[in-house]
Amino acid sequence: MATNGTVGHVNGQANGNGTVAPYRYTHAYLRKARPLRIAIIGCGVSGIAAVHMFKERFRAPGQDLPIELVIYEKNKSIGGTWYENRYPGCSCDVPSHSYTFSWDGNPYFSRVYVGAPELYDYFTDRAEAYGVPEFVRLQHQFESATWNNATGQYELTVKDLATGTLVEDKAEVVINASGVLNSWKWPDFPGLETFAGKHTSADLSGKTVGVVGTGSSGIQLVPQVQAVAKHMRVAARRYSARSR
Ligand SMILES: *[C@@H]1O[C@H](CO)[C@@H](O)[C@H](O)[C@H]1NC(C)=O
Ligand SMILES: *[C@@H]1O[C@H](CO)[C@@H](O)[C@H](O)[C@H]1NC(C)=O
Ligand SMILES: *[C@@H]1O[C@H](CO)[C@@H](O)[C@H](O)[C@H]1NC(C)=O
Fold first, then answer.
1. Which residues cross the membrane (predicted)?
2. What pTM did the predictor assign?
3. Which atom of ligand 3 is nearest to the CA of 142?
4. Per-residue pLDDT for 174 more than 60?
């Protein structure tokens, strides 16, 4: 907590030669809230959870704390992973019940490993319930944050994707909820840059399809695509320990 610089009270302690050392203290009571702005990068599962926690902590009935919250989300919708991933068969790779907020289970899931649309519905529905729309700025892509030690704030630059303009903001707290798997890169296939096909949500019926990898996405994708593809080949580095 910053002191306001006012000389409050002289504590009366003499230093031995008769003079009194001025003692400064802040004119604030213990735990007095100071204005604070929290900025969150990304409104997927973590961004949505953050609003719930923010309200619980700072917006309890009777509280009037000067704490602000803003969430910058690059996409046109909240939901993160469950909005962005559109590949055939995309679903949860842990049982869906363990993929809900711990305080807000969902007894209505249709099966054990539900698909992306059902998870998207659950999380966007919870987001409405927590009041996320009040805090989120859609189509705002985080660009940079620079700590200003003199003001004790991050100086943020965010790009408004709808207009292409840069927006400046300041926040004492920045939470990176952008998702550990969201900065993926294309594999280094020669010729990839001249590929004219679609990269996501393509109609694969009658096509010859190659799949590289048998992780959870491969497991979800292959059963869906093999049913419509003309021919499919899956490349696995080796059998997994599980398949022995
Ligand atoms: C989400 O935003 C990113 C970055 O602008 C973009 O590449 C991606 O296509 C968007 N996803 C959807 C589903 O619109
Ligand atoms: C940062 O600010 C604090 C408080 O004003 C000051 O004590 C500290 O020396 C500063 N650090 C740097 C690296 O400037
Ligand atoms: C946020 O987290 C992602 C994933 O860990 C990382 O790639 C990115 O650099 C982080 N951004 C900032 C501003 O810390």
1. 36-54
2. 0.84
3. 13
4. yes
